[in-house]
Amino acid sequence: MTDTQRLAAFERMLGDARRNYEELTARLEALKAEGKTKSATFRQYLGNKMTYQYILSLYQDYGLLDQNDGEVY
After folding, report:
1. Which of 17, 27, 41, 73 could connect to 57 by a Cys-Cys bridge, CB 3.0–4.6 Å?
2. What's the CA gap between 36 and 63, in Å, rounded?
3. Residue 46 resides in a domain
């Protein structure tokens, strides 16, 4: 794997992590609005969101996120 391919793979991973984090946040908000915070689905989504939040925080800790992003994970 070349350095360019490796960088592209990291960029894809970052994009996927961000999309999944945003999608899970929206799903959790919808379940909250329905009063389903005790459901197994809500808890699974919450666990998944926390995993993606951790991954994104690692990117941030290592300075791999743009400063323009403004979001703190």
Report:
1. 73
2. 37
3. yes
Provide mean pLDDT across the span 25-34.
98
Global pTM value: 0.86
H/E element holding 32?
A: helix 3-33
Q: Residue 31: is its pLDDT beyond 80?
A: yes
Query: What is the DSSP code (8-state) at residue 26?
Result: H
pLDDT tens string 54-66: 999 999 999 888 7
Give the 3-state secondary structure of residue 48. helix
> Rounded distance, CA 46 to CA 71, Å?
19
Domains in the chain: how many in total? 1
- What does DSSP assign to residue 2? -
Classify residue 72: in a domain, yes or no: no
Domain containing residue 52: 9-64
CB-CB contact of 73 with 57 (8 Å): yes
